[in-house]
Amino acid sequence: MILSNVEIHKAIDAGDIIITPDPTPRLPSLQNPKSPYDTTAVNLRLSNALSVCKDNPAAFDLRKSGIPQYLKDNYIQKTIDPDGGYTLQPNQLALGNTMETIELPINLGHKVYAARVEGRSSNARCGLLVHFTAPTIHAGFKGTITLEIINLGKMGIVLYPELEICQLIFEVVEGIPVRHDSQFQNQTTPAGTRK
Q1: Which residues neighbour 15 within 8 Å (Cβ) at sequence distance 6 or greater?
Q2: What is the secondary structure of 62-94 as a DSSP string?
Q3: Region 86-113: what's the mean pLDDT?
Q4: Measuring CA to CA, which residue among 51, 52, 86, 89 is closest to residue 158?
Q5: pLDDT 10s digits, 145-192
Q6: pLDDT tens readout for residues 45-72
Q7: Is residue 109 in a domain?
Q8: What is the number of domains present in the chain?
Q9: Domain span at 160
Q10: Residue 68's beta-bridge partner residues?
Q11: Distance CA 171, CA 116 (A)
Q12: Beta strand 93-103 pairing with 164-173
């Protein structure tokens, strides 16, 4: 079952979904008509960090572990200029992450949630994808969300820090899952490492 914006707010108030910093305003008003909450999702913003693949990176054997180390060795860390932005060229891949940290706690006696990260249709219409096959944010996860950003359009797309780049859709998990944290638990960088 997908949560409505009202149910997302209830889950945040109960501490069953934690988004830091808390997206505001929750509801649009005359004073502030823009809200990051759609009817069934919350928009998240791009941080100022990108990881961009080096020219001619080493081949990676997907049967091996150590993806964060591979990314560290073969990607260049960039800071997005808040004024000039970063131009993502056609067919260029960059890893970004959200400004917001997400936590989906697993607590006995509480509802448990998972989420899916999705692109925003306005950005997609320009050719911007924010994930390929990795939309799931598992119950128990804590960290920023890494975005696999690619420009499939014909022209460069300028990315800026704080751009509303993706949305999270929350779902109720039936039963209490056994924890099985990924190698990216507590990630704070686009490459999936901790600062």
Answers
A1: 105, 110
A2: TTSS-HHHHHHHHEEEEE--TTT-EEEPTT-EE
A3: 95
A4: 86
A5: 999 999 999 999 999 999 999 999 999 999 888 777 766 767 776 766
A6: 999 999 998 887 777 777 777 777 788 8
A7: yes
A8: 1
A9: 5-173
A10: none
A11: 8
A12: unpaired
Does a structural domain hold residue 13?
Answer: yes
Q: Is residue 74 part of a domain?
A: yes
Regarding beta strands 142-151 and 42-53, do their DSSP bridges make them parallel or antiparallel, or are they unpaired?
unpaired
Tokens 């901790």, residue?
194
- Any catalytic annotation for residue 148? yes
End-to-end CA distance of the chain: 35
Residue 45: CATH number of its domain = 2.70.40.10
**pTM (2 decimals)?**
0.87
Rg (CA), the chain: 17
Token digits for 46?
Answer: 């791009």
Gap between the Cα atoms of 146 and 167, Å rounded? 13
Residue 181 lies in a domain: no
Q: How far apart are CA 129 and CA 153, in angstroms?
A: 10
% the chain with pLDDT above 70: 92
List CB contacts of 194: < 8 A, sequence separation 6 or more.
186, 187, 188
Residue among 103, 148, 164, 171 flagged as catalytic: 148
Within the chain, residue ranges assigned H as helices are: 5-13, 67-74, 121-124
Contacts of residue 135, Cβ cutoff 8 Å, sequence gap at least 6: 116, 117, 118
Which range has the worst mean pLDDT, 2-6, 61-65, 98-102? 61-65
178 or 130, greater pLDDT: 130
